[in-house]
Amino acid sequence: MRCLILNACYSQIQADEIARHIPFVIGMNDSISDKAAIAFSVGFYKAIGSGKTIDKAFKFACVELQLENIPEEHIPILHQKKL
Asked: How far is residue 45's CA from residue 2's CA, in Å, rounded to a whole number?
């Protein structure tokens, strides 16, 4: 596994711990609405499906939230594996 998305509210702490074992983990640093969580996932997987890197797919997914006028683009946090 290269990337895990914890698309649940307040999952940043878990994501930080999991990032010790998996190269990329995305967690949420606050409460996130269902609409935002779904839009983020759709944007992320669209970018991955078109061949973007995980970093770029994460950024694309945050922009997807902005494009849909969902003011929660600051909630997803990308964690990278700690050495």
From this structure: 14
